[in-house]
Specification:
By secondary structure, the protein is of the alpha/beta class. It has 11 helices and 19 strands. The chain has 3 domains: 2-127 and 251-281; 130-246, 3-Layer(aba) Sandwich (Rossmann fold), CATH 3.40.50; 295-400, Rossmann fold (3-Layer(aba) Sandwich).
Length: 407
Amino acid sequence: MKFANLIAQGNSERNYGDDIQMHAIRVLYDYMGIDYNDVVRITVSDLFNYDGDEYLVVPINNPFWGVYPKLSPKILPVYLGISVLNDSAAESLKWKEFEPIGCRDQHTFDLIRARGIQTYLNGCMTLTLPKAKDRSKADKVYIVDVSDELLEKIPEELKESAVYQTQQIWGREVTEEESLAAYEEYQREAKLVITSRLHCAVPCLAFGIPVILAMKEISFRMGWLHKLIPIYDEEHFDEIDWNPQPLEIEDLKEAIRENAAKRVRETWDKYYSQYRISEIYEDKNFKPTLIEGMNEPINYLKSNWVEEDAHKYMLWGVVQTAESLYQYISEHYPNAELVGVIDAYKTLEFHGMTTGKLELLENLSDDVTIFVTAEKASFMALETFKELGIKNYVICWKNRNSKMQEA
C-alpha cells in the first residue's frame, strides 16, 4: 500500500489553480514526514480505473463536477476538501463508505449532510500553504483575471505599477512547475493581489499577502472564505477597501493541517494490515481452469444450445451456482426461459419465480433441460430422474462426485 496524490489534467487548457490544489497535498505529506519520492501520482481518471498492484491512500482536495463511474476498489480516498454541484456522485465516490467528508463550501456541505453522511466544512487545503519567509522585495500590485468593470474601479496609483496576470492558460501545454512558479512569484514580489480567482486568492492569503477578492457574482465556492475576508460582487465594487491587511491565520492553518494529517494516517492504519496481506496473494493474471459447479453446465450449453434459439430450463437448488448459471444463460442465451426452480427444503423467490418441490418434475416435457445446481442434491436428482424416466438433465457438480453413477 502507498500514499498517492493527484495530477492536474489538461494539456490545451490549464488553470494554475489546479496544480496548487495538488501541491497543498504535497505540503501535507511534508508535514506528516512522508517522503514525497515514495508518493504515487495519479490522475482523476485513475481514481476510477486504477488496477495497479498496490492499494493507494489518496487525500482529495478538489471539485467533482462531472459524472463518474465507481471508484476503483484499490483507491482509498480521504476526502479533505471536495466540492460538488449536486449529490449525484454519492455512490460513485463512495461517500458513505469513506465518511466523514471534508467539504470545501457550504453548498457541498449541505448537500452531503442531507444524505445522512458525516460531513464537516474544511475549506480548501491551499489555505494551509506555509507563510512566505522573505517578502522584503514584495513591492508590486498583481491584478489577476479581473473583469473590465472592476478594472475601472481600481485606483490609478495601484494600476501604475501593476503586473497583470492570468491563471487560465489556453492553447499550449503547461507544466506543474510553471504553475507553481507563478505562486512563487506572488510570494516574492506581491505587496497586494487583486483577483477574481479563488485559487489565486486563497494561496496568497496563506502566503501572508493582502488580497482583494472581487467578481461580478459571488460563486457558491466562496461559501467558507467569506468568513475570513470580504468578497465583493459588482454591486459592491464601490465599497472595496483598497488597503487590506494580511490575515493572521496560523492557528487555523495548523488546526486544518493537524486534522487532515490525522485523517490520512487513520485511513492508512485502518487498511494497511489487511491489504498488505492481500497484495501478496492477488494476481489479476491468474486464470483458473475450473470454476466448481460451472464447467459442466457451460460445456453442455456450448455443445447443445444455439445462442439465438428459444430454450426452456429448470434449476434444482437455490445456491450460488444457480445464480451464476442464471446470469450466464441470461447473458449468452437471451431467448432462454426459466420455467421452474426446485428446492426440496425451502420456499424462496428466485428472479420472480417461487420455488417448488419435486412435483414440478411430473409430466415434464422433453424440451426442458434440468440443471442440478445444488451439489448435495446430485444423488437425489439421479434417483428421481431414473424413477421418472427423465434424461434431459445436467449434474453441475459431476466433477466433484467422481463415484456418482448416472442412470
